[in-house]
Amino acid sequence: MAKIVSSLFMALDGVVEPDKGNWHFPYFNDELGAAVDETHTADVFLFGRVTYDSFAGAWPERESAGGEDAGFAKRIGDVRKIVASRSPLDLTWRNSEQLQGDLVEAVTALKADPAIGKIALSGSISVVRQLLDAGLLDELHLFVHPATAGGGLRLFQDGDPSRPMKLLSATPFRTGLLHLVYTPDPNPPTGGYEEAVGRLPEE
């Protein structure tokens, strides 16, 4: 069974659009680069259309330019890339294909494919939400920056269903950025106010 791993850059106010404001790049260092490289090591990349367009508009050029990140650009270019979209797409980046049929059904089939060990998502907020709600996402990596964005798309919205999560690890970086890894919690804590009061230390 393939593991599905999502990674997102997040500001302190919950914004997950790193191009909104200047809260992401000032905190990029070797620690974050290594962590991102690890989360982007996969057999398949799954994208929403907006994130795919952003990647396809940047990484092929960086690969051909031969700069410091050309190796990373080549690696993700070589990986199979599947794009979820309700509209027909003209995909020019190599090894790219459009997801066919229902998202949850298609990803369930990918997850069960014995030839696939890991499926990675970067950004693709709508896809992440749907996979969380379908119980298909195994790990959620949040790179929480010590700054607010002031506006932009958030991962969790008002009116969303409750999504209990279990913390797997928390790694602070030198910049003050925190790498949090969560997995869905099928057995979250229960109880209300009375139970919480009962757990308070006695005076």
Radius of gyration computed on alpha carbons: 18 Å
Structural class by sheet pairing and helices: alpha/beta
Helix proportion range: 25-40%
The number of helical segments is: 7
State the distance separating the first and last CA atoms: 50 Å
Q: Which runs of at least 5 residues are low in confidence (pLDDT < 50)?
A: none
Portion in beta strands: 15-25%
How many strand units?
Answer: 8
Secondary-structure element order, N to C: EHEHHHEEHEHEEEH
The spatial strand order of the largest sheet comes to: 4-3-2-5-1-6-8-7
Could you characterize what this model shows?
By secondary structure, the chain is an alpha/beta fold. It has 7 helices and 8 strands; from the N terminus they run E-H-E-H-H-H-E-E-H-E-H-E-E-E-H. The chain has helices at 30-39, 49-56, 59-65, 70-78, 103-112, 125-133, 193-198; strands at 3-10, 44-48, 80-84, 96-98, 118-122, 139-144, 165-172, 178-184. An 8-stranded mixed beta sheet has the order 4-3-2-5-1-6-8-7, with helices on both faces. Helix 3 (59-65) crosses helix 4. It is globular and about 65 Å long. The model has no long low-confidence stretch (mean pLDDT 93).
